[in-house]
Amino acid sequence: MSKMDGLRAMREARYEAAQKGAKAPAAKPKVPTAPAVAKAKQPTAEASGEELCGHKAISGRTCTREKGHAAKSHRYA
Predict the structure, then answer these.
(1) What pLDDT does 9 receive?
(2) Region entry Disordered: which residue ranges (predicted)?
(3) First CA to last CA across the chain, in angstroms?
(4) More exposed terminus of the chain, fewer Cβ within 10 Å: N or C?
């Protein structure tokens, strides 16, 4: 389901609720978000017992490489 399909479904649900005379807004349809799907697919180093680097980016994300990695760049997730 695309973003526009989700918006259309919410708009139609609100319209139907208004037509029925409901006072409360319609419940949002459950749509998985991209970050939730990406987190579910990524294997974590914590599961294998390794410690993570933990370097924080400006955006607030943390480095997922092993602690003390030799790479010059960090891998954020």
Answers:
(1) 93
(2) 1-53
(3) 24
(4) N
